Amino acid sequence: MIEKNQSEKISAIRKWIKIIHRDLGYICFGLCVVYAVSGFAVNHMNDWNPNYIKEIREIKIKNFDYMSIEEDKELARRVLKEAELNYQIDDCFFENRYIFKIFLKDGIIEVDFKNFQVKIEKTKKRPIFYELNYLHLNKAKKAWTYIADAFAVSLFVLALTGLFMIKGKNGITGRGAYLTAIGLLLPIVFIVVYIYL
Amino acid sequence: MKRLNLLLLLCVLSILIYAEDKKKFGESITIKEISPVSKILEKPEEFVAKKILVEGRIIDVCEDKGCWLEISSDKKFQTLKCYGKQNGISFPADIKGKKAKIQGEIYKVELTKEKAIEYFKHQAEHKKEEFDSAKITGPTTLYFLKVFGAEIE
């Protein structure tokens, strides 16, 4: 009788574990996509810029006596004319004796007067990845911090409930135990090898 | 179902209410008077540890992690490097060329001769300037702005 009661109790707990795991899983799906895609993108930061697409165009212009032009805006207009570019100038600034920067509405032009080289640089947000990374790296801060915290807790609950969802040979007392051990060992091995050896 | 819809609506509203304005970074700007960069660079010691407001064009930004940006001075050939990383502020890479108002504190970094040579060599390479290590004859003091808040136009 006591055994039957205990088995009923365990069944009831397992039922709730399944409900929690199922519903939390539905809620977390979207967030998992955000963190998985962004995680993959950020993991390869050394190979590409996951946030921005940088467009660079270089044009060589003919030499002219740039020092004789006193007005910076006039000099900027002359540079654009020499480079056959048609941009609206927002502002300009001499960073040093040779580097002159022309600010545009959507970019920047760097003029190297040592080599009379004009570099047009436009930086655009990488679609989808910028937005996903913005959330993943918590640049949004404020309300998103709470959502991300809740997601972290949810992931832990999902992992924990996942352990006890199935009984029998594929459950935590059988095959599940070996797979869980592998999952635990992986980070431990890397920590030991990379940090302590 | 009605409860779920209400929950979704609350989520959207809270995001809209608390979403951070992308053009504002860190704390809100409270100082009204702008300190010209040229004035700061002329007598930087007078500004050390003082909370000030500067204004300029963003001529460069750290593209790796957005931990610093460099603004133009009101005078030619002068710039001021502003670090946001101490206060957890990171700047996006697409703000280059935009006008910025930055509230922060001037701080100094003292470098040994060897470290100064290393620093200026790296800076000269980045800015395609000629670098003559003989010009650095001893320890050097550098001045930067620690960013507390920024507004980008």
Overview features:
heterodimer, A: 197 residues, alpha+beta, 3 domains, 5-stranded antiparallel sheet, 5 strands, 53% helix, B: 153 residues, OB fold (Dihydrolipoamide Acetyltransferase, E2P), 3 helices, 6 strands
Structural class of chain B: alpha+beta
Largest sheet of chain A: 5 strands, antiparallel
Briefly note the structural class of the backbone of chain A. Answer: alpha+beta
Average residue-wise pLDDT of chain A? 93
Please estimate the helix content of chain A.
40-55%
Number of strands of chain A: 5
CATH architectural category of chain B: Beta Barrel
Provide the gyration radius of chain B in Å: 19 Å
In the sheet with the most strands of chain A, the strands line up as 1-5-4-3-2
| Most extensive protein-chain contact, per-chain counts | A-B, 30 and 24 residues
Q: Could you state the CATH homologous superfamily of chain B?
A: Nucleic acid-binding proteins
Topology:
The complex is a heterodimer of chains A (197) and B (153).
Chain A: H1 2-43, E1 52-60, H2 72-82, E2 89-94, E3 99-104, E4 107-112, E5 117-125, H3 129-136, H4 143-163, H5 175-196
Antiparallel strand pairs in A: 1-5, 2-3, 3-4, 4-5
Helix pairs in contact in A: 1-3, 1-4
Chain B: H1 2-18, E1 24-26, H2 37-42, E2 51-61, E3 68-72, E4 79-83, E5 99-111, H3 113-127, E6 140-152
Describe the model:
- The complex is a heterodimer of chains A (197) and B (153).
- With 197 residues, chain A is an alpha+beta fold.
- Chain A folds into three domains: 2-47 and 127-165; 52-125, no CATH class; 166-197, no CATH class.
- In chain A, 53% of the residues lie in helices and 18% in strands.
- Chain A has a five-stranded antiparallel β-sheet, with helices on one face.
- In chain A, helix 1 (2-43) packs across helix 4 (143-163).
- The longest helix of chain A is centred in the first third of the chain and has 42 residues, at 2-43.
- The two termini of chain A are 55 Å apart.
- The relative contact order of chain A is 0.13.
- Chain B is elongated.
- Helices cover 25% and strands 33% of the residues of chain B.
- With 153 residues, chain B is of the alpha+beta class.
- Chain B has a single domain (24-152), classed as Beta Barrel (OB fold (Dihydrolipoamide Acetyltransferase, E2P)).
- A five-stranded mixed barrel of chain B has the order 2-3-4-6-5.
- Classes of the chains: A alpha+beta (197), B alpha+beta (153).
- The A-B interface holds A 49, 51-52, 54, 90-91, 93-99, 101, 103-104, 107-108, 112, 114, 121, 123-125, 139-144 and B 14-15, 17-20, 57, 59, 63, 72, 76-77, 79, 90, 92-94, 96-99, 127-129.
